[in-house]
Amino acid sequence: MSLSLDTCRSLAHAALATGREKGMKPLGVVIVDARGAVRLTLVEDGNAPLRADIAHGKAFGCVMVGVGGRALERMAKERPHFIGALGGLTKDRLTPVPGGVLIRDAGGAILGAVGISGDTSDNDEVCALAGIAAVGLKADTGA
């Protein structure tokens, strides 16, 4: 199974709707497939210019390392040299904080990841989880 464009659109729209319902700041959403290729980028009006890049780094880092954003954050604290090396290997396209969530199928295979940026990392993650749930896939935050 792969992430269809329709699935990506539905996921992103559900994530953004969650942000609006909860009164969050404007969000940027990036969804990548299991290879790290961008499938969809949506940025709300008023989202700060670098937020889409941050969202991409959250999603890209998750699929490249195979763990959710919370696991990457732990690694950054516990093994900063390792995360520094990964930053170099990924050409600084790795953002090791919550808000990056792996998207898995029912069997646990990684289909891709969603990265969201615009509010706090915890709130970004809430929106990612809502989007993934809305399309009936499994979320992996790395918690």
UniProtKB/TrEMBL annotation:
Full protein name: Glcg protein
Q: Which organism is it from?
A: Phreatobacter cathodiphilus
Gene3D superfamilies cross-referenced by the UniProt entry: Haem-degrading domain (3.30.450.150)
Q: Which PANTHER family match?
A: SLR1406 PROTEIN
Cite the InterPro entries for this sequence: GlcG_carb_metab_protein (IPR052517), PduO/GlcC-like (IPR005624), PduO/GlcC-like_sf (IPR038084)
